[in-house]
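Support request, please re-run this one:
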Amino acid sequence: MVQVTYEQVPGWQAWAWIDRPPGGSIYRGQADTLRLPDGKVLCLMTSGQTLVGRKTRNSYAGNVAGIANRLLAPLLHSGGRRDMIDTSNAARISGSADIPLDLLPTILLIENPEDPRSTHVFDPERPEQWLGPGARFLGAQIAVTSEPRTTGIAAVLPWLADRAVPQQLTGRNDPFYQESGGNVLFKTYFNQGEGHERSHPAEACLFLMWWTVPAPCNEVP
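Re-run finished. Output below.
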């Protein structure tokens, strides 16, 4: 579970807003992890801070607040379009929705959870590349929940809490660099917003739950 807080910004910024209350959204949360039977770890990177290994140019892809706007925001009265979630309606948002592939956050596969340099880009359309013949990605959903944020990612990926490990986790000679089109990984991609408070008053909070569909045998959620 991750949290998106919708806040009201100071009045001096209101000039940029014409037909809705001035506001913004703050993301707090950790990557969603799944440990596989062979010890590998899948990570759903929910911060939306970087897009890797994706051909899509969808501006909402991987961003929790953007995905919520696309899939959970109130419908407008005409045209079947959705409104934006903000301080005026966030407390009333409910329900769940399947996340289409073009909006799906980046998924990483870490071969050795003790070594961040063993990270690869996982392609949900070709899961057999890493998980063997017959493997399938069954999908992901976004839902509103009252549960608290998920914590404890360092128990799965211990190098996140190890101060001896630098913030930049991968480099040019690592497989992630080649597979992601020349990007590198940082610790902040896995855990964002903790202990970071804003001075603007929050009007409402929306908790989003990311979960995967259970799969038998070698089928992958």
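Residues 2-212 form one domain. The chain has one domain: 2-212.
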